[in-house]
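Example with several molecule types.
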Amino acid sequence: MHQPTSARFKANAKAALADAELQKALHFVQTNFPQRRRDVAAKLPEFEALRDAARDIKNHTLAHLDLYLEAFENNATARGSQLHFAVTGDDANRIVLDLCRQYGARTVTKGKSMVGEEIGLNAYLEANGIDPVETDLGEYIIQIRHELPSHIIMPAVHLRKNQIEADFRRVHTSLPKDRNLDEPAALLAEARATLRAKFLAADVGITGANFLVAETGSAVIVTNEGNGDLTATLPRVHIVIASIEKLVPTLEDMAQLMRVLARSATAQEMSVYTTLMTGPRRGGDPDGPAEHHIVIVDNGRSAMLAGQFRDMLRCIRCGACLNHCPIYHAVGGHAYGWIYPGPMGAVLTPSLIGVDKAGQLPNASTFCGRCEEVCPVRIPLPRLMRFWREREFERRLSPATQRAGLKAWAFLARRPRLYRLMTAPAMQVLAWFGRKSGRFAALPLASGWTKVRDLPAPQGKTFQAQWRERGRQ
Amino acid sequence: MARTTKRVGLLVTCLVDLIRPSVGFAAVKLLEDAECTVEVPPQTCCGQPAFNSGDRAAARAIAEQVIAAFEHYDYIVAPSGSCAAQLRVHYPELFQGDPNWQPRADAFAARTYELTQFLVDVLGGERLTARCEAIATYHDSCSSLRECGVHDQPRKLLASVEGLQLTEMAETETCCGFGGTFCVKFPDISDVMVTKKAANVAATGADLLLAGDLGCLLNIAGKLSREGKTIAVRHVAEVLAGTLERPPIGVPAKADRAPVAQEAGR
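Resulting structure tokens for the full complex:
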């Protein structure tokens, strides 16, 4: 399993900024998705109302999660699914491995699952002699590169076509050297041919779920490649792995959430494939798995439910906050050091691996608010990031120099007279030094600023000093 | 002064107080021209650096001080969307559930405005007598735009400034990378953001950059001058008030290096 490097965010970011290929890939995200999302949202007059409804559905579900979990269990069991509950990621891994062993599986195909990434399922299966094959194209590419996803819906968005071609030539040993892979379609065809054989050979298929519908016991996935359907229907056994906050009460609720999901994610009205999977194959069904298992994972969610970060459990993993984040645009997903990047990752990662390991993430934000502005379930992401900063401050995890500086400043800020006495002469001195050029190219104690930009010099006397000189109140 | 005059407490903001007092005087002129009585009670800062650094106790103590100093005015106005948002949006959040302070914070927040928002939405002013020969572009600061809902107000007012032509830049709503302490905590990332912003400013061909927040302006002006670009940078209040005596941000009183900047400043 990949060890999180979130504690090294700054160093990761520096490397990312120096990576020319990555920067080209990120430019595509920045220049493409925000505009496309704006256009598709503008075409739907009720889009803002739908976002309210989506938020309300999620809030309602979270408020009655016990009820809906039980309803889901009853309805899924009644339709022949076998349910498993995993408190931790390790529990979930063990449950999946046991199932694979029970069915004598050697090869398993996988649809994209973020919770699978979160718990390190692939590495666990590999370590236990089972060969997991990712079937989402992006997920397949990062699997053969032994990388983490850099985006929650476009795992390989950090890569350029030529890099992917090189990976295919490295791993697909039967690929003729003279085969032309210049076109993206040729790369796709090559991946498809390779994966087709895996689909047919797999003993077990594992998918995630975008939603679990309590009223019907269905697991729902949306994909654009159809790989989820092949993973779920071709092998004899289908295992769904999903975290508890994927629950929604009814099909109607799911349909409402779907209307904001694809628009927010990829600016599509809906994804190409939407599949509701309810129980194993029944008597007259032409296809489908003989055995259907659903593993519901908690892994820290119920602890979040009771605390300050509950709003984060509304997240439907659309990736809009990543697509609109200027920090994500600058450094990409890998800099965040684990599987959840961008604003949602800056809130969720500390919840899952600890703020002591991921404290830099909620600090790496200007609180520009663009994430909250586009979030389809209206998660107040900047506020939640601020809550993490408060936890850090309380636990004295923020750098000592920073805390001391803040303390000194706050001391002054609470004493207006002393503040004026201290700041007024300081500004005059600075203004005098800056009088010739009007700015500072370098200034002691301000190198963080002047390293990359000039510091404009102050005008001289402070406003409050001048105001008093004029005898005004 | 008119008898039905509105009493306005001006939160100068710490950056304007310390670095660019001319913005504060421009704000006073705009408010007094609109027949408000303006007072500036002793003040320091709105507490945002503490609030955003996780020091809630300090943020609260400073907020109490600001509320006590300003709550007896009819209105509280700040020439900054960021500080106005701290007062309007975050003070009520800080005191949520406090039986003594929450009602005070809520009442205070409801009477607090960003400068251009106050001039347009409360005073209904859209016509000014200012003059400024320049092609200007306006940067929407994040807090003004997303927390205060300021977008059309400065543009409406700028449209009445004689000689001024407004040209919009690409991605005007994208953050400039200032973000308070962010810009010094993450200078590499901040640099990328302000570089993009400076490029978008320069691409408009404008000779004057305006915004309603001095933090963003210092950041972008510092980048433009570091890159050797001679685009004048000013707070929108200076242009609206027609008080352009002081040179633009980062330009010395007797500038010999930045002729365009000086010209746009006249």
